[in-house]
Amino acid sequence: MKNVTDSFVSLGRWPSAGSFGFNIDIFSTNLINLSVVLVVLIFFGKGVCAGCLLSDLLDNRKQRILNTIRNSEELQGGAIEQLEKARARLRKVEKEADQFRVNGYSEIEREKWNLINSTYKTLEQLENYKNETIQFEQQRAINQVRQRVFQQALRRALGILNSCLNNELHLRTISANIGMLGSMKEITD
């Protein structure tokens, strides 16, 4: 028994034993204070108010979490649907791009052949124009040469006639011409 009394006596020697005060260290007393408040609410409120309050808070939290999960699942479903639509559009656009690419290559090939054919036709026309121009220039040159030859022959003939004609020959030519004109006049009368 002496041990039990000694233990009570030793409690009296502790400086905090038997005194009541405030502990301002919030972190060390926070857990104890919360435990005391919960025990008081449960026992003195007979579990109804504290339990209702706590269960209502938990139910509200649970509903918010479930609503959030449901909304997330709906958003996920919408996002998956949009992703599938985007993939379908992407496949469609890729097919169209391939078709445009194939058509573009075909169009390029067709344009290339059209250009080659057009170039051949243009070259052919240019060759014809060249030949026509050459023939025209040759004909013009021939005509100029003929004209010069004719002019020179005419000058030479006039020169010869002028040198050969004297007054006597000139008078005889005039008489012969008058005679021919007279005979023509008689025939017509």
TrEMBL record:
It is a single-pass membrane protein. InterPro entries: ATP_synth_b/b'su_bac/chlpt. One of its GO terms (molecular function) is proton-transporting ATP synthase activity, rotational mechanism. It is found in: Membrane; Plastid, Chloroplast thylakoid membrane. It comes from the Eukaryota. Residues 76-103 form a coiled coil. The chain crosses the membrane at residues 31-54. GO terms for cellular component: chloroplast thylakoid membrane; proton-transporting ATP synthase complex. Pfam families: ATP-synt_B (PF00430). Keywords: ATP synthesis, CF(0), Chloroplast, Coiled coil, Hydrogen ion transport, Ion transport, Membrane, Plastid, Thylakoid, Transmembrane, Transmembrane helix, Transport. F-type ATPases have 2 components, F(1) - the catalytic core - and F(0) - the membrane proton channel. F(1) has five subunits: alpha(3), beta(3), gamma(1), delta(1), epsilon(1). F(0) has four main subunits: a(1), b(1), b'(1) and c(10-14). The alpha and beta chains form an alternating ring which encloses part of the gamma chain. F(1) is attached to F(0) by a central stalk formed by the gamma and epsilon chains, while a peripheral stalk is formed by the delta, b and b' chains. Belongs to the ATPase B chain family. In plastids the F-type ATPase is also known as CF(1)CF(0). F(1)F(0) ATP synthase produces ATP from ADP in the presence of a proton or sodium gradient. F-type ATPases consist of two structural domains, F(1) containing the extramembraneous catalytic core and F(0) containing the membrane proton channel, linked together by a central stalk and a peripheral stalk. During catalysis, ATP synthesis in the catalytic domain of F(1) is coupled via a rotary mechanism of the central stalk subunits to proton translocation. Component of the F(0) channel, it forms part of the peripheral stalk, linking F(1) to F(0). This is ATP synthase subunit b, chloroplastic.
